[in-house]
Fold DUF3224 domain-containing protein.
Amino acid sequence: MKATGNFDITMDPQTDDVAPVGRIVINKKYRGDLCGSGIGQMISKRTEDGHAAYAAIEEFTGTLHGKSGGFTLLHQGLMSPDSQQLNIQIVDGSGHGELVGIRGILEIIQSQQGHSYQLSFEVSSPLTE
């Protein structure tokens, strides 16, 4: 199944006295087939020559095609001056409420109009697995 829509994001940089990385609290408001909020933390590292990496954990709570619940997203990203690779997936076993058994991949689309998403997912009942 597919879900599409857009989202707004705010990022709140944090200080990190433990590791030489950037740490940011992320807050998202999703609209469309996925409606609700996401909150999480991201750590990142940028090199002097323009390469970067980040990882984040985000907890989504809201509705997906009218089903109430939530799930955890794992973000992984690698960037260079010429390209970027993003992998965002739903953590298996993290679905709750009516979204128990959800699995999937989230794609972020960035444009001048803002951020949008496409979620490719399936929900299987834990009783039928």
The chain has one domain: 2-123.
